[in-house]
Design goal:
Layout (H helix, E strand, L loop, with lengths): L3 H15 L2 H10 L13 H7 L2 H26 L2 H20 L12 H11 L1 H18 L2 H16 L11 H17 L4 H8 L3 H11 L4
């Protein structure tokens, strides 16, 4: 049953997520519009690509804690756990939707990896540690953040279904939604497939596969 609080946290989450922190950061620090260069996303991954580790890390922390961790921490303080879990799940999903499809950027945006990490840090610390370890291992193997992130989300989804007592099985819902939102965002991208096909002179199939697994068109 939909409550007023569900609607409230959906709206607040979406608009908070829509604040283009990466775009603002890029214009202030790099003096560039990062939505038009690099991979054209407004997240930390594009800052890493366009500048250096320091600036990318700063934006990652801003998104992870400013958008993901702190708002959920406040909700967890105000509400008992049973209410927090449902309100927090709704909030985290809508903040991710806002970040990926910002109303201020004509429904374009980032990828939301930092937000997901910040959210999971509140929901379950052991699962967040597993996320970081898995991401690091597969990045060291593949040297590619795109495929490493997808594999990490799959590992988290499988783990949340397991019988490990320190992992809340209820997390399967938000984690599955995180994965679905990530896949949809990757496939849609910030540019049309037709535009990318003409620019890169490649097939639609190759673009879709690259977007899904590597998070890029070529």
């Amino acid at each position: 049953m939909v409550e007023l609080n569900h609607i409230f946290f959906s709206i607040i989450g979406y608009f908070l997520g829509s604040i283009p922190t990466g775009l603002i950061f890029g214009k202030i620090v790099l003096k560039k519009d990062i939505s038009k260069i690099g991979n054209k996303t407004i997240g930390a991954s594009n800052i890493f690509y366009l500048s250096n580790f320091k600036f990318g890390s700063i934006l990652f922390v801003i998104d992870c804690f400013g958008k993901g961790f702190l708002p959920l921490l406040i909700i967890s303080i105000i509400f008992p756990y049973s209410d927090f879990f449902q309100y927090g799940t709704i909030f985290s999903l809508f903040i991710l939707l806002g970040h990926n499809w910002s109303i201020f950027l004509k429904f374009k945006g980032g990828r939301g990896q930092a937000l997901i990490m910040g959210s999971l840090l509140i929901f379950n610390i052991p699962l967040t540690i597993l996320m970081c370890i898995t991401l690091l291992i597969f990045w060291m193997i593949s040297k590619d953040g795109g495929i490493s992130w997808i594999i990490t989300l799959l590992v988290l989804m499988i783990t949340s279904l397991s019988s490990i007592t320190i992992i809340d099985k209820g997390l399967i819902i938000p984690i599955t939604m995180y994965l679905m939102i990530t896949i949809i965002k990757r496939i849609m991208g910030n540019n049309s497939i037709r535009e990318s096909r003409m620019k890169n002179k490649t097939s639609t199939k190759k673009i879709l596969l690259n977007r899904l697994f590597l998070d890029r068109d070529i």
